[in-house]
Structures are given as structure tokens and as C-alpha cells.
Amino acid sequence: MGALKEGPLRLDELSLFAIGCRRLGLGGEARGIARGSKFSLPFFMEFLTVAAMHLPVRFQPLYQARVWGGRALARVFPRTLPGTDPIGESWEIVDRPEAQSVVRDGPLAGMTLRDALHLRSADWIGPDWPVTRPFPILIKWLDCRERLSLQVHPPAEIAPAMRGEPKTENWYLAGVEGQAGLILGLKPGVTPAQFEAAIHANTLEQCVNRYSVQPGDSVLVHSGTVHAIDAGCLILEIQQNSDTTYRVYDWGRMGLDGKPRKMHIAESMKSILFEEPPPPIVRSADTAAVIADCEEFRIRRTPVKKGAQLAFAAGEQCRLLSVVRGRLRARGLDVAPFIAGDNALLPFAGAFNFEADEDSLVLVTENFS
Questions:
Q1: Which of 78, 217, 287, 317 is most deeply packed, by most CB within 10 A?
Q2: Biggest alpha carbon–alpha carbon distance for the chain
Q3: Are residues 102 and 60 in contact, defined by beta-carbon separation less than 8 angstroms?
Q4: Are 200 and 269 in contact (CB under 8 A)?
Q5: Angle 317-321-323 from CA coordinates, rounded to 5°
Q6: What span, in angstroms and rounded, lies between the C-alpha atoms of 266 and 245?
């Protein structure tokens, strides 16, 4: 959209409308609407925005270098990573002041998610959505070549007082290598005093639970749960829109700058829910199931056999579609296929019908609005 500016049009209006129709994959019937009519650039922008509500929306990934990351995202998915640094995170859908998803293709290509929501938030998310409210979900791919820090996110009850944000997140294990595992919660009976003493004695591993994992496993990690991801995990993380993390322990590792990374011991001690049991792991299965259901969102694991269809009606709710395995096409729409690694926003106002070109597995995130 960057090429379109306010002021006199350099193209005649009918040609501009036709370009928009071609970008949307609309036929001659739609283009015929414009014959003999006059309209302005704001009308054309409105036309593109309304039409975009009936298309699945994909965004350009925002890659984040991390000391524990790698280059597996270019090996597992058909992607080109920037530079040579270890890439630990790919932010797929995000609406934050410091990070904005940009529409990858279609009529709104080049527009930020925030700007798109500002134009027509009711059609994107629902009629009661305040235009200034950020999109509530952040989706990331995590490439964990090394163990992540032991960390915690502040519970909602105390996050504002700590000038932070709560962060409940779900991890879906898309791939594992070696002795991959997850560290989740404290062993029974560990007290705050014992935990803090273990930090200084470098014996924290004795206080936490470690679980082996396999591809297809999933776990919902609530704010207040101490956790870490072990080396060898490729994870699709679906989370509250938050970026508040308190590091408890970093296993003696140096950061990308060669210096120890900042720890947040005092904040962590206030945030950890010491009496809470570890979250259960939903083990891998090739069946439809709800794998996460909390106040912030619900995630459905949805296998789609070759030739089968997956449909969503207009006006139900905004949803997010994450392709973990396989390839799907949006029936009746002139858009690129949806392949493994893709994450798409399905606007509230649109009706969508996907057909699998091969046996596929998708995650559907919903109930967040």
C-alpha cells in the first residue's frame, strides 16, 4: 500500500479499480461495478480493506537473533533467514509498540497489523472490539538449539504492580532432536527459601521437573510457572500478547555480546507460584482434540486428510490458522497455498473453506476476543 498516496491520482480511476480487482482475484463482474462511475482514492482504500476481510491474512516474519537459537527454520521450512546469527524466534503475528507484523501479500500488502485493525477492527476481530486495543495473541516459531534460560512470567494479579504483563503460552512441539525435553514447574515441597538458595549454589536443576518430549506433544504454561525449553526443540508458541520475561538462571551462559545476560531474581521470586503443580503435557496424537483451553485462548488440534475440507463461517469469530504439517488451499480464493510453517489470521467477517492437498495437521486458535 505504500505506493498509494493521498492527492490526485496518476492512473485513471477505472484502471486503478481494475488493478485492485486483479490483486483480489475478482472477476469481470466486480470490475464492471466501476464502469461509468467516479470514486476517490479513499474509496479505493476502503474497497481494498473491505475485500481483505474475506481473505486469509499472512504476515512477514520478524526474525529475532538469540544466543540459544540456530538456523533450523530455513532447513525445516522454505525460508531464507537474514544474516548468519543464530535465529531463535520468528514472530509470525504480533501487534506491539516495539514490533509490528506487516501484511505479506494480498490487497493490504505492506500495511502493519495495527494500521489494518485501526481501519476496520470490527471486521477483523468482531463488532465489540475497541479500535485501540492491541491484537491479543502473539505467535512465534522457536528454534531451540540450546537450552533456554530458566524463567517465569508474572501472574496477572501482580504484573501491573511490577510494570509487566502476564503471559500464558502454549508450546506445540513441531520437531525434536536428540534428548529434547521441557522443564516445567517445581518438584513437590520446594520452598521459596530452598529455591533461592539453589540459585546461589548453582543447583537449581534439583528443584525443577524435566520431561522428555516427542513431536506432536503440547503443553499450556500459565503465568507464574517456572519453565525452560531444552535443546533440540522446534516449537510453535501461541501466547498472550506479552513480552515480559524474568530470567531466574541461565546455566552459566554468555550472551551474544560475550557478557552474562541480565537476571531478574527478585522479580522471579515474586512471580513464581510455589504451590502450583506442573502443567500436564498433552501427548501427541493424530486425532482432533482441544489441546489448550484457558481464559486467554483455546487451541484445537485438527488433522485434515488429503481431499478433506476445513470450513469456517463468516461472523463467528476471528481465528488463527497454523499449519504444522502438510499443505492446504483456500477454495474459491486466488491466494498461495498454505504450507507447513504458515500462520494466517482469518478475519471475523470472512467465510473460509480450506482443502488439503495432502494429509495435513493444523492448529486453530480461537476464543481470544
A1: 217
A2: 80
A3: yes
A4: no
A5: 165
A6: 13
pLDDT at position 183: 98
3-state secondary structure of 228: strand
Give the CATH class of 57-282: mainly beta
Angle, helices 41-52/13-24, rounded to nearest 10 degrees: 10
Instruction: Give the integer Cα–Cα distance in Å for 330 and 184.
Output: 38
156 pLDDT above the threshold of 60: yes
Q: What's the DSSP call for residue 199?
A: H
Given a contact cutoff of 8 angstroms between Cβ atoms, the answer to whether 350 and 282 are in contact is no
Does the pLDDT value for residue 7 go beyond 90?
no
Q: What is the mean pLDDT of residues 159-172?
A: 96
Phi-psi region of 162 (alpha: psi -120 to 50; beta: other; left: phi over 0): alpha
In terms of DSSP bridges, do strands 87-93 and 62-70 run parallel, antiparallel, or are they unpaired? antiparallel
In the block, cell 501466547 appears at 239
Question: Residues 112-130: pLDDT tens digits?
Answer: 999 989 888 888 999 989 9
Contact 124, 59 (CB under 8 A): no
**Whole-prediction pTM:** 0.88
**DSSP notation for 271-304:** H--TTPPPPPEE---SS-EEEEE-SS-EEEEEEE
Q: Please compute the mean of the pLDDT values over residues 324-336 and round it to a whole number.
A: 95
CATH 2.60.120.10 maps onto the chain at 57-282, 289-366
Question: Is 10 among the catalytic positions?
Answer: no
What percent of the chain clears pLDDT 90, i.e. is strictly above it? 78
pLDDT digits (tens, 9 = 90+) for 43-59: 555 666 666 778 999 99
**289-366: CATH, from 2.60.120.10, 1.25.40.10, 2.40.30.30, 2.60.34.10:** 2.60.120.10
Helix, strand or coil for residue 116?
Answer: helix
Q: Which of these, 279, 236, 224, lies nearest to 138 by C-alpha position?
A: 236
Residue with cell 479513499: 42
